[in-house]
Design brief:
InterPro entries: AAA+_ATPase, AAA_lid_NorR, CheY-like_superfamily, Homeodomain-like_sf, HTH_Fis, P-loop_NTPase, Sig_transdc_resp-reg_receiver, Sigma_54_int
CATH architecture of the largest domain: 3-Layer(aba) Sandwich
Number of strands: 15
Pfam families: AAA_lid_14 (PF25601), HTH_8 (PF02954), Response_reg (PF00072), Sigma54_activat (PF00158)
Low-confidence stretches: 377-391
GO molecular function: ATP binding; sequence-specific DNA binding
Strand content: 5-15%
Keywords: ATP-binding, Nucleotide-binding, Phosphoprotein, Transcription, Transcription regulation
Protein name: Sigma-54-dependent Fis family transcriptional regulator
Mean pLDDT: 84
CATH superfamily of the largest domain: P-loop containing nucleotide triphosphate hydrolases
């Protein structure tokens, strides 16, 4: 079932554009021009997310948020406005808004924010997931470090931007440990409700608080014997940080409302895109907890730092989604491959995955083309690989270097490299023999 989103915006062109963005990403979006219409739609529909401008012809976004709170409707809410006001920001956050976005709102930022909001608070895996073996030197170093630390029970902190695949690193640590075969529980700390965070982490007994009609296990119970992955740990409230520190120090915890200690039989792997040192200086993160979590640190590179992984990852996702969506695709056109290589990928591996999934669904032919990938026509940054890689093979003086770069760009896939160079595969093989590149 599609997620339903309400866009409250009086600029018809902008609201339609955002509606199209969400529609293309697989969501069901509805628009409203003012607060009264928005309230009427909210009464009739079950929305999963509301995005509202502050200034509206009738009413405003902040009063709509107040009304939602009064009606006890816990719907994720994002405020947008051209006129950024610090007092307004503070008010909306206190009222429970998830974020405050200044205009112009960028497509990638908005969709990434929605995806983060819709990610489940926790997922539990009990069997090995298919992961692509990457070849970028920086990723090989990450894999080497993960392999080294996996057999121990050390706490690991993974640093890196959103969408770089930090959870995949955590999974590889789990799969290389003695806890493999036991649960791997991934918790998105960024969406943990502040008032329920302790109960969700440590569980609660019956009658612990209003509404606790039955006892419930927490994430520490779910991960017993396995690995607990705490993603976006930098967003965790300070009071929950204190509780987590106590658990790490004493290796025990007590469910909310309970009086019996339980052993915390889990291996902790945490991750964040935050500058933790800065967060410590600003008083947002406990330094003692940081040192407990950071017994071993791994830095995950961005996709832009791993250009040689782009094509293999794109192929990996193309094959996966072609099977899932029952679509017959065979690869990428020359233009599609060129774009994949020259785009800067601000959303990293997650953005690549989402774009490939959409391209597989939209493609009319067997090859995914430039238009299917729906990216800006001009690269956001300088091309990530030397120009020779994506130029036809014409300059004999630089021929050998061009072939080497093309093969690197395509991870050794000769047919793809031949397409990049605009020559037949047989011609490429002959030239590889000439330069002894086999």
């Amino acid at each position: 079932m599609k997620r339903k989103i309400l866009i409250v915006e009086d600029n018809i062109g902008l609201s339609q554009m955002q509606k199209d963005w969400f529609g293309q990403a697989g969501y069901d979006a509805i628009t409203a021009m003012n607060e009264p219409i928005a309230r009427s739609l909210i009464r009739k529909n079950n929305f999963d997310l509301i995005i509202s401008d502050v200034r509206l012809p009738e009413g405003d976004g902040i009063s709509l948020l107040k009304w939602l709170k009064k009606e006890k409707m816990d719907i994720p809410f994002i405020i947008t406005t051209e006129y950024v006001s610090v007092p307004d920001v503070v008010r909306t956050i206190k009222l429970g808004a998830r974020d405050y976005l200044p205009k112009p709102v960028h497509r990638e930022h908005l969709l990434e924010l929605a995806e983060d909001i819709f990610r489940p608070i926790a997922t539990r895996w009990e069997q090995k997931r298919e992961l692509l073996k990457r070849t970028c030197p920086k990723m090989l170093e990450v894999e080497r470090c993960a392999k080294l630390v996996a057999p121990s029970d050390m706490s690991v902190l993974i640093l890196g931007a959103n969408g770089t695949g930090k959870e995949s690193v955590a999974q590889s640590i789990h799969e290389g440990s003695e806890r493999v075969g036991m649960p791997f529980v991934a918790v998105n700390c960024g969406v943990l409700p502040r008032e329920l965070a302790a109960s969700m982490l440590f569980g609660h007994v019956k009658g612990a608080f209003t509404g606790a009609d039955t006892a419930k296990e927490g994430f520490f119970d779910m991960a017993k014997g396995g690995t607990l992955f705490l993603d976006e740990i930098g967003t965790m409230p300070l009071e929950i940080q204190s509780m987590l520190l106590r658990v790490l120090q004493e290796n025990t915890y007590i469910p909310i409302g309970g009086n019996k200690e339980r052993v915390a039989d889990v291996r902790i792997v945490a991750a964040t895109n935050e500058n933790i040192e800065k967060a410590i200086l600003e008083g947002r993160f406990r330094e003692d907890l940081y040192h407990r979590l950071n017994e071993f640190e791994i830095r995950q590179p961005s996709l832009a730092e791993c250009p040689e992984d782009i094509i293999p990852l794109a192929e990996f996702f193309r094959k996966r989604f072609s099977k899932e969506l029952k679509r017959d695709t065979t690869g990428f056109s020359d233009a599609g491959m060129y774009r994949l290589r020259s785009y800067s990928w601000p959303g990293n591996v997650r953005e690549l995955q989402n774009r490939i999934k959409r391209a597989v669904l939209l493609a009319e032919g067997s090859l995914l083309d430039f238009a299917d990938l729906e990216m800006k026509k001009q690269p956001d940054k300088v091309a990530l690989v030397p120009a020779l890689v994506i130029s036809p093979l014409k300059d004999e003086e630089n021929e050998k270097e061009t072939i080497i770069n093309a093969l690197k760009a395509c991870n050794g896939h000769r047919e793809q490299a031949a397409r990049l160079l605009k020559i037949n595969p047989s011609t490429l093989y002959r030239k590889m023999n000439k330069y002894r590149l086999k």
